[in-house]
Amino acid sequence: MNKILKVVILVLFISSSLFVLYYFGIIRLPNFINTSTSDSEVTITTDKTEYKVGEEINIKIKNNSNSLIYYDSLGDRKWDIEHFKDNKWTSIYFFQVTDQKIGTDCALLLYERAPMAILEPKSEIVDKWNQVHCKINSGEFSGVTSVLSEGQYRFSFKYGLSFSSDNPLDQFSYRIMDYKIIYSESFSVK
Fold it and tell me: For this UniProt entry, which segments traverse the membrane (predicted)?
C-alpha cells in the first residue's frame, strides 16, 4: 500500500508540474495539423512546352484535393526551377528580380522568414515569369541579371501536408512537415 501511495503521489506531482510549466509558457506542446492527399492531386503546369529566350512563362499550381496544403512563401516566388544538363536535373539557385527595368546589377536580398502559406482545396496559384533572374556566384552577394539560356527546364513545387507550431499565435513559428516535391512537365527554351 505504501508503494502504491508513493507512485500515485509521484504521478500527481509530475503531471501537476507539467501543467504549471505549460500554463506559464515555460514549456510548449507542439500543435499538429495533418491532411492527406496524393501527389497527383497537386499539380504544377506551364501554358506551353516551348518558349523563346526571354518569353513570359505562365505557371499554375493547382490543389485538386479536398485538403489544405502548406508551403513556404519564398517572397514573390513559390516555385523553383531545374535545368536538364549532362543527363541530370540540377536546381538553378537564384533570386527572382522584378519586372521593372533595373539594369544589369542585382543583389542577394536577405529578409525575415515569410509566414507559411496555405493553398485551399480546389484552388490554384497563377504566376507569370519573364525568365529574368539574378545570377549570383557561390559565396558572393551580388551578381548580374540574366535570362534562361537555351535548354530543357522544369518547375518544382515543394509543399507539406501538415505543420507543427510551438506557438500557434505566431505566424512565423512553424515547421512544415511531410514535404512532397512535384514537378511540371519539362519545357524547352530556344
Answer: 7-26
Give the global pTM.
0.70
Q: Are 121 and 68 in contact (CB under 8 A)?
A: yes
**Which has the closest alpha carbon to 177: 4, 30, 12, 74?**
30
pLDDT in tens, 114-156: 677 889 999 999 988 888 877 776 666 677 778 889 999 999 9
Q: Where are the domains of the chain?
A: 30-189
> C-alpha dihedral over 63, 47, 55, 188, to 10 degrees?
100
Please name every residue paired with 189 in a beta bridge, in sequence order, or none if there are none: 51, 151
To the question of domain 30-189 being in CATH 3.50.30, the answer is no
The C-alpha cell that represents 181 in the structure block: 516535391
Sign of CA dihedral 140, 146, 147, 150: negative
Query: How far, rounded to the nearest angstrom, does the alpha carbon of residue 54 sit from its chain's CA centroid?
Result: 25
